[in-house]
Amino acid sequence: FHHDGSPPAHEQAWENAPQRQPDRRFRPPKAQRRASSGLDDHLSQFPIRGARVPKVNSGDIAQLASYGFTTAFDAKRRDLQQVHGIGPVKASNIAAWIRRAEAKFQFQSAYTPEDQRQIQKAQNEIITKQQGLEERLKKLVGEFRQEAQGFERWKSGRDPELERLAQQLAQAEADLSHLGVSAPSLPNVAPLPVPPVSTFQRGGRPSNFAATFTTGTRAAPSPAQPHAVTCPRCGSRMVRRTARRGSRAGRPFWGCSRYPSCTGTRPI
User: Residue 95's pLDDT is what?
Assistant: First the structure.
């Protein structure tokens, strides 16, 4: 070096001379990606600290490191002049050093053992992700089928709680009808699925109950029913009831309206 810190003339000529660049013109896309990745790895092996770069001193190297510039790869992919103290001249000298490092790179088209290891690692990761995705899809399909089967069972089956409430409603409307009390109008709600009418007929329920429940209108008394049935014990009016226990469970009968004070009954 001269007294002013500048390099000898032959070094300046080398830095300013055009450097040989890796030839990528005739490489297929996959080979270009491999060459680019290999060049990046190659430049990462050239630390700025200890490099012979004209006009770049230890203070500049510390400033570069504080901005994350530690290798030739870092200096190539980012703007050096954002670092305090690095101007066009120093940035140009560092760029020349990077070009010299690039000129030493030799791309090997044949896969090295390290390349084979990286390829195998990537393939294993892909297979693992595919297997995990396949398992998740199988699980989702199984859950969907279970939900669909459960929906079909619900749609074709009976709801015990709904049947119980429907029976209580029918019994209450029949009681009010035979007592001569008008039943309050039901709210206008969307129709709900109920068991077939024939089911209630076999169980002794009013034949018009299903229409009553789904349309929201109260049931009218059957024309075949007598308008006045008296209790054999006390002579009071009798109302239609449904047996809940015993051998006649589910069948209708006439019960005294004064129940539980009077337990008189008549068969229907």
Answer: 95
